[in-house]
Amino acid sequence: MSGIYQIIKKLSFLQPLRPAWRALRRWFARRMTPLPQPASIPSPCASWGGDPLDLYLTRKLDAFLASPGANIVFPTAEVPSVSIIILSFNQAALLLECLQSVACHTNLPYEIILADNASRDRTLELLDRVQGARVIRNQENLDFIKGNNQASFHARGKYLLFLNHDTVVTPDWLEAMVRTMETWPACGAVGVRLIRMDGRLQEAGSLLRPDGTAFGYGRDDPNPYKPEYGHAREVDYCSGACLLVERETFLGLGGFDERYLPAYYEETDLCLQLRRLGKKVVYQGQAIVLHREDGVLSGRAQALCQANHPKFLNKFRKDLESLPDFDALHSRDRRTGKRILLLDDFIPDPFRGAGMPRLKLLLLDLAALGYLVTYVPLIDATPKGPTLRELQRLGIEVFHGSFSLANLLEERKGFYDTVIVGKPHNAEQMLWRLRNLFPHACLIYDTEAIVHQREAARAELEGKPMAPEALAAMAEWEFSLMRMADRVLTVSPSDRQLALKGSGNPRVRVYGYPIVARENAPGFHSRNGILFVGGLTEAHAPNVDALQGFLQESWPIIREALPHGVFRIAGANPCSKVVNAASEGVEFLGRVENLEAVFDSSRVVVCPLRYGAGIPIKLAEALAMGVPTVASPKAAEGYGILDGSVAAVAYDWNSFAHEVIHLLTNQHAWNLRQEAALQFARDHLDPVKQRLDLRDFLESPESLEAQAA
Fold first, then answer.
1. What is this structure's pTM?
2. Where residue 48 falls among pLDDT bands split at 50, 70, 90?
3. Thinking of the domain 339-510, which architecture would CATH place it in?
């Protein structure tokens, strides 16, 4: 450096560079000189190799303790749901980071129990700055097992959450864990997705081999956010770095087994004891916690593992011998249901339309029936809306973002018992391929809609009717896909009859749109106005055509008869055709997250589809919500209600207007329609019945053939 500076001094034309070079030398000198360490404070950098992050945490602790008014304040819950137990020993900087993350990201009623194992660093100073926590100051180091057992006796919460002091929690961590504990059947413990500070995955649930050795699923993966780590699963055990258990059950088992003193194998032992009681150990990928594990056990830790392994093996030898041969993909989920792969267009955001609301319910029903479900979107894997997290939280594996479909299918060749493909364009591309990859699987084609009829109706309305041979070719194409599959799902009885007749495949069943009929639906006088619900972008052509026609032809007649009438339209991003057709009295509500209040405030729902395929889901929702409806023949035929007994059926725009006016003004007729709609929903849309029919469809093909005959 100095030699270069001397050259600059001697050469006159380089004189302007001298100030810049001096500044660069000063900057370089600062970078090369280590910052001084306070002599009285042990630095974690000394034992951890001088990691800059550790140095940062030490400086952060210094600044915190140097500020007289700095405190960590925890809420004091009279009836805490969770008791968070944190054991500490000589790592004040890490404890500060952990406590601050808990205070920032925890919203449930909870209490903090801090048990210090006779720390000799600045931990005691830090604990003096913690408010709202119960602090236990041990006079000796009780180590992990005894320290946590002692602290558990001071807990008041329904659940105990054991949390290592070298962790950082993230938003919704504890809420996701408690939600899982309270909703997953027979759940006894919940663990989290642990990610190391270097970005690698530590564990997405842990598995055991028959010899008692452990395997952390996904361990050391540089991408801890892969889709396969996102969904809840039943596993052998989860790390004690962050583990939720019921307090009474934990105490009833005597806490962590002290045969493993001072540590290692205690959480594995606890989880297997819970499984002996018939309880499940659940990994919840929606709860993410960062952990400062370095991935390499110290010599002492390795020695403890080796010493405790025979103890664990002797205690659980029979349990371990009953485990099947170990394979990471098969062993990662201890649920015993059939494995189902379902492929369709998008991650099923209900607001996207195009069959997505029904697809979401199909996935939820498959999971509720105990199947292990993987869902793969074939067109757009972008995660939109809250549906992705909801499905993952309930144990459904959803592939999203960037992934290789070819690699996924090849890696899981022969893995699935049942494969379902939705929609004809996907079936055309995938059925033959899936037959080769999963030769022993039951292959199901979910039609979602039989489209050749829709295309024929659209062409007719546009004045360009399809040639008979073209229509026949399209129909044969659809029916040939049904013949390629082992079984076929349709959305309505009319579609089922068409599929049976056209394909010759006798194994056809209906799975429509399950929905619960509304109890205590509001009456006539608490409502007003008309409602239309549906997607209104250019991609939703049947809805756009229907609404445009109603606005131009029927709405002026209604408005003339009822000058103060209101027409509400619920649907995101309405296209210009719809907006331009609107007139006075029309209200665009945009995207409505919860439609219940909108249905409850509306007196009449209109469903004026002129063409389409499948079933209009919003008609089912209107019937189940107890809102009298005026529907076109096309909308009504999917539900078999063309006789007008359930919904008023209008065959032209003029009759549409007068049926709406009649229901808006005649309370007696309105009451009859409401009761008919609710009774139809109870009889034909009941979710429990449809779920049982779905199970029968998947498990008993003989019954399908008998029905077809």
1. 0.86
2. very low
3. 3-Layer(aba) Sandwich (3.40)
